[in-house]
Amino acid sequence: MLLLKMPRGRHVVNRHQIFYRDKAFNFRGGMYQSSLEGGKVWLQTFSFKAGASYFILSTVMLALAWSISFYIIPFIQELSTSTFIGLFLSNYLWLLSLVSRMFVILGFILLGWPLALYIVNEYQANEKGVFCKSLSLKGIVRVNINKADIRSISIRQTFLGRILGYGDIIISTNSRHFKLTGVENPSEAERILRKILQLTDEKRN
Questions:
Q1: Mean pLDDT across the stretch 41-60?
Q2: Between the CA of residue 92 and those of 84, 97, 98, 100, 105, what are the distances in Å?
């Protein structure tokens, strides 16, 4: 095992501190930093700010579904009694109803997915490398990235991510790219990660 994996479950004492096996981790800028077995540790979970973007998309989906069901469909039904266009569009009410239901399903998925990511996702680093536990469509994925294999570390942010202050950290090796999703304050997180891993500026994208 390359890194000491953090145990399942977490006990939050207050907003500034968290305990793992009776070891205190201090909260600083969205990250938990302390020392573990003589090496510095960087630890972070899926950010609430990243979850907010899912909530915004979910709200849009549910609002569209509501508009279709309670405004557009009744309007077409009323229009179908007086105009030819309304009569023509009434043949496709089933399609609008299907789209509305799809928006509802997607809306609730987007509400639940960030909660699952917050519970499962965990990123840890010490001087030996990085340990990632993340949720994907294939299930829970656990990856150990050896420090010697890391070729570059970069940040990827969407427009909404820049506004809310979160992003993804991309760790590249010779064969693969690993994404740490929904990291709060990614610039500061990258700086701390590089410092703990003792990477040179040559390994920056």
A1: 85
A2: 14, 9, 10, 13, 20
Q: How far apart are CA 30 and CA 134, in angstroms?
A: 18
Whole-model pTM: value is 0.70
Residue 111 DSSP one-character state:
H
Please give the full DSSP string across 137-166, using - where no structure is assigned. TTEEEEEEEEGGG--EEEEE--HHHHHHTE
SS3 (DSSP) at 121: coil
Closest CA to 151 of 195, 194, 196: 194
- Structural tokens at position 35: 């020392």
Residue 171 three-state SS: strand
- List, in sequence order, every residue forming a beta bridge with 125; answer none if it has no partner: 42, 130
- 58's tokens: 């979910």
Tell me, what's the pLDDT at 200? 61
CA 157/CA 182 separation, integer angstroms: 9
Sign of CA dihedral 63, 69, 74, 75: positive
35, pLDDT greater than 60? no
Helix, strand or coil for residue 178?
strand
